[in-house]
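Bench notes, afternoon.
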Amino acid sequence: MDITAFIRELLFSHDCVIVPGFGGFIGNYTPAHIDKASSTFYPPVKQISFNRNLNHNDGLLVGRVSGHAGVNYSDARIIVDEFVTGLRKKLGRGEKVVFDHIGTFMNNQEGNVQFEPDRTVNYHLDSFGLEPFVFSPLETYDVRKRISGRIGREPVKRAFNRKAVWRAAAVIVPLLALMVVVPLKTDLFRSKVEATNLNPLAKAEFEENRAAVDSSVPEVVIPSAETAGEPTVTEAVQPSQLSDSYYIITGSFKLRQNAETQAKALSGEGYSPEIIEAPNGFFRVSAMRCQGLGPAEASKNSISTIFPGAWIRKI
């Protein structure tokens, strides 16, 4: 199956689309700008670049293939793997691989994959229908002519009105005194705004970054689609009680829909999955719980044959 259509669709709504085992497509935003040399206006644009090091499975592309083809998660992963295998064979034979409206791939002399993006396509949705256009520059305005026209004219003399100055001072001085005294005596002008984190990458999470940053926060366990009942919240207990309990995590997703798709795949393999809401807003999918680190490691090795990239998370 050719999955390039799914990649194009996802690039319109996501800034990063990863093809597991091959690499990741990244959308780079460029604001609207003017080329003064050619007098051309350019709209905002999102151009696509490629990073071959982003090759882990984040579930986004596999989940989209699974939903469109009507197959389970494991079969969708096989479809993506077969597509990647075919790409690598073509590149290994020195062929050029073209992704329509995305770009072209080719191996260089060192055997590394090179990507040339298609710069005619704009994946920025807010720029839909906008095209570059050329404008006619304004006529030259010579300010020196305006100045030379005033040379030789007599300046207008204005009479100095001392009384008007005193009246203005009588009004302004008390106002200045109030502006100094009021903030010192009250909190009228004190800011009520609290600082916050404006870093757009603060919530980014990848499968390689599995540090336990939320060890002191209780996790919320959300039932999967097959699990009936209300969501249960694990109560905060003493560390000594949690030292031997572990989750086997198979994926971490920004969208709950992707987490539920993987939970269905785990249920089909005979596991009892749980969806855990992480403190940073992501949804983690647990295949099972284990008592003790030894059984957890053995279960992880078994699950990794079906879901590569699984890791252990202490409860």
